[in-house]
Amino acid sequence: MASLSGAFSVSQADVPRLLKRIARFAVLPSEVRQAVAALPTESPSKDLLLSWTPQVDAAMSQLVVLQGPTTSFISRYSDGDLKALEFCSDQLHRYNPEQTLEESALATFSKKLSELRELLTDDLNFEAELRILLLRHVDAMERLIAEADLWGLLPVRRELATTLGQLLLSPQAVARAKDCSPKTWEKATAILATLAAAFSFGTAAIQAIEAASTQQPPAPIIVVETGSPGNSVPPVAASSSR
């Protein structure tokens, strides 16, 4: 580990983060292959688009085993390989453009995440299950935004979609939050609506979360035994709402 931190000029404390990032880099060639395979038939030759893969695969293998100086990784590919990779990237973006955000919009997104975190931690009466769920996703989105220059914004969009989906699947926790901390929940949904709008999700997701939390669950059925022990009198089903 000490040699690794020295080779990449990072502190010993940052080595776990470095290892995680190296692992993420190592799967990129495979992800690019999948994206190229999904291109329409009228796209440029897929063999041409992937002409860089042998050299970059070799470089990635050298990086993963973490042996030798960093120059042994860099020497595995040439400027021509990088140009081929750049061409491949350009074609992928032409056929499947990735959503981007202006710097100001991304800064607003980050600010709203901070506001949501502060809101959830300040209200001690806020529903505990929902606080844990939302803070976990806030942490994830903040981390993904910090790495957006490497991986783009698609991971952030996916994490936000997962957040909204889990809220939709937690109607009872949402209902408790609305009962215990109505003002906090109102502010939280306003922030979530702003985040959703940044990625063009619209208001349908927030409306669905609100609607699911207001639906009353069906009344449970209570089985009432009738008759004395030994008698074969069938039980009677009664609704608890009576």
Question: Roughly what fraction of the amino acids lie in strands?
Answer: under 5%
List the domain count as a whole number.
2
Rounded to the nearest angstrom, the distance between the terminal CA atoms is 68 Å
Summed over residues and divided by their number, the pLDDT gives a mean of: 81
Q: Give the ordered list of helices and strands.
A: HHHHHHHHHHHHHHEE
- Tell me the helix content: 55-70%
Helix segment count?
A: 14
Give Rg in angstroms: 27 Å
Topology at a glance:
Blueprint: H1 2-7, H2 15-26, H3 28-37, H4 46-49, H5 53-65, H6 71-74, H7 79-95, H8 103-122, H9 128-146, H10 148-151, H11 154-168, H12 171-180, H13 182-198, H14 204-214, E1 221-224, E2 236-239
Task: Please describe the structure with a list of short key phrases separated by commas or semicolons.
two-stranded antiparallel ribbon; mainly alpha; 2 strands; 242 residues; elongated
What does this structure look like?
This protein has 242 residues and is mainly alpha-helical. The chain has 2 domains: 94 residues; 112 residues, no CATH class. The protein is 67% helix and 3% strand. It is built from 14 helices and 2 strands. A two-stranded antiparallel sheet has the order 1-2. Helix 2 packs antiparallel against helix 5, helix 8 packs antiparallel against helix 9 and helix 12 packs across helix 13. It is elongated. 14% of the residues are buried. The C terminus is likely disordered.
Summarize the structure.
This protein has 14 helices and two strands. It is mainly alpha-helical and 242 residues long.
